[in-house]
Amino acid sequence: QVQLVESGGGLVQAGGSLRLSCAASGRTLDNYAMGWFRQAPGKEREFVAAISRSGAKTYYADSVKGRFTISRDNAKNTASLQMNMLKPEDTAVYYCAATNAYYTTSLHSRLDDYDYWGQGTQVTVSS
Q: Hey, which residues does 81 pair with through a beta bridge?
């Protein structure tokens, strides 16, 4: 079992930045691909970014490409999402997720691919 806890959410003005962190416990993250998803009020949870087990490969939703950066530190058992140039439409609860991955370079963008989820952290961007 992997337990995930997100932190770093908050209220920020449009154009600002936030850095979300995801701390894992229970297992080391070396064997897990990671992802970030978000869910705005009244909308379905959507994919934001993914990173492979090794961290060598990343993948982003078009809506955040060039503004968000996903990273991980397997030694510290953490993953992060640096969010720059934030927009009001980025307002949502952000979730990190983990899935046991056989290949070190595999990436996952589907909700169903992930086995473990954090409780979420609220990000609110004011205009």
A: 20, 70
